[in-house]
Amino acid sequence: MRFTRTSKMLSVAAIAALSLSACGGGSNESGTSEGTTDAVIVVDGSEPQNPLIPTSTNEVGGGAILDLVFAGLLSYDAEGKPQNEMAESIETEDAQNYTITLKEGKTFTNGDPVTASSFVDAWNYGAAAKNAQLSSYFFESIEGYDEASAEGSTVETMSGLEVVDDRTFTVKLSQPESDWPLRLGYSAFYPLPAVAFEDPAAFGENPIGNGPYMFASEGAWQHNQQIELVPNDEYEGPQEAQNAGVTFKIYQNDTTAYQDLISDNLDVLKTIPTSDIKNFKNDLGERSIESPYAGNQTIAIPYYLPNWDGEAGKLRRQAISMAINRDEITDVIFNGGREPAKDFTAPVLDGYNADLPGSENLEYNPDEAKKLWAEAEKITPYDESEPLTIGYNADKGDHKTWVEAVVNNIKNNLGIEVAGKPYATFKEARTEATEETLTGALRAGWQADYPSLYNFLGPIYATGAGSNDARYSNPDFDQQLTDGLAASTVEEGNEAMNTAQEELLEDLPAIPLWYQVAQGGWSSNVDNVEFGWNGVPLYYAITGK
């Protein structure tokens, strides 16, 4: 058996520097010794929110599929270190102008070549306002993004992208940015074949990729049941499949999945249900993992809700935060398997700081919480006809127990009406968040796309960002992010990101609760199970016994 014990991440500087040279590629670097097997690995999954288009998938159910079906310029190994996939080289002299050269002979599973246009066309599609892609924000660094993404714009291309030849394209950013190359392994930057643009919705039901796996057949996505993937025999790279396929079985709750796991009817379970956390190590022994990763849990409170905007809303957010006893919840409910949050990022990231000004707003202080609530009442009385609810998905993650604990903390310490609001599926909850139809707060959180402080800030809290569930907008925060990306050193960039966090710790568009820990397990039928830096199993490396 192999176990991941992820600790401090590589610095962004080291990773970015590595990504600019020809690293990885061409061979299996998973470290498995048994070789490939004929076993199909059955793992737990959740129903994707949308058709599987890389630029419009920003949740883990769809993301897990995309990361196996597609391959980008880079990918990340178990420790978060980038390795070349489609890229032969990524070169720059000024961190603003990049020349990207692709490896020769790469193809999509329909036989079409992976060319420079495959990337440029996909990125332009993702950025253009008319396509309304959820991950559009990831292209905001590229020159011309503002024109293409503006509401009502008919511009379909970004001026900073240019195809030189079939294997070469150039990228011009609006300014030098310290971590831009590091982002290129994220799914928003995956290439697309020409057929994808003919009917994107239909393509998303049966995507044609260039990654280590492909759909087993047309219709392999059996909605709310399973998604069957088989190896792509034409793929050559660091994530080459060591098994005969991966089937994502879609469960309606993690308790059922856990019972299947201990009965050897499920091979890998990414998240142990809260109700089984105290026993899973005894149940599974060496077939279990508990390790920190780059992820957190929050409660997002939209600014479009009554009671929660303006100065009174800010005071109420702070009061809610101070009314939550994170130490007690993480100890009692999670059996010590979570760490109370001190900021909006994660401790495993380079640049993390647990002592930022404003972090006291995340400490349990019921007396101060009462005072803040009373101050808010003097400004604008609380409209009790709109009581606070905290939404959570009931299908994955077993969130009900901790949400009820948070609800009781708030009720007992502030004397207001609060209730949990279950959604049948994660997809349903994400749809309301995307469509701005939430009627209360929502259980949120973040699983890192790439190892950087910025990834926990920009995509979630910058004005107009696709994952900005709270619809937060603060020009000072936005500017500090921009300053951080333009910093000449990683250390300066991290300082700016943490300065930006001071704004968040004051405003609390979302309330950080705790940092996530990978708590998962696997059956006695599989071997070589490893969880990566972001808490996701390395599915391609898993073998049967």
Characterize the largest beta sheet: strand count, sense, and whether it forms a barrel.
Answer: 7 strands, mixed
Give start-end ranges of low-pLDDT stretches.
1-34
Number of strands: 20
Count of individual helical segments: 15
Quaternary status: single chain
Radius of gyration: 23 Å
Helix fraction, binned, reads: 25-40%
What is the terminal-to-terminal distance? 11 Å
Assign the structural class, choosing from mainly alpha, mainly beta, alpha/beta, alpha+beta, or little secondary structure.
alpha+beta
How much of the sequence lies in strands comes to: 15-25%
| Mean pLDDT score | 91
Report the principal-axis shape.
globular
Describe this structure in words.
This protein is α+β, with helices and mostly antiparallel strands and 545 residues long. Helices cover 27% and strands 19% of the residues. The strands form 5 sheets. Strands 12, 13, 14, 15, 16, 17 and 18 form a 7-stranded mixed β-sheet that branches. Helix 8 (310-322) packs antiparallel against helix 10 and helix 14 (475-485) packs antiparallel against helix 15 (490-507). It is globular, with a radius of gyration of 23 Å.
